[in-house]
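User: Fold this; tokens only.

Assistant: Input:
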Amino acid sequence: MLDAERAYVALGSNLGDRAGRLAAAREALARLPGTTLIAASRVEETAPLAGMAQPPYLNQMVLLETRLSPRALLEACQAIELTEGRVRSERWGARTLDIDIVQYGRQHVCEPDLIIPHPELPHRDFWLRELAELQAHER
């Protein structure tokens, strides 16, 4: 089994019961094998990316300690999204739940469907705020 790593995972929802979906995601992530939810940032509402006409998002980031590999964590996140009704049809389209691995320890992963650190991190002010809030919690 892998040593535990600290993973920062972003949650977002702009369809249906947004707050309920974030809560369900936090609970499901905390139940993953070899995983503990250490902290969660504040929830904030943000405008959709790319200026798309859709409802605003609720966003939050969580800090996990996990023994899952980055690939296993991605697969678990996608399974949670499916459970919450996620349909992948349009890039940056409206969604019931979006879960992104933002950072995974100090690891760098570059695979066709998994890039860590997440390449959009420097471009999303709300992620930077949420990450800073969680990193302050670690000190």
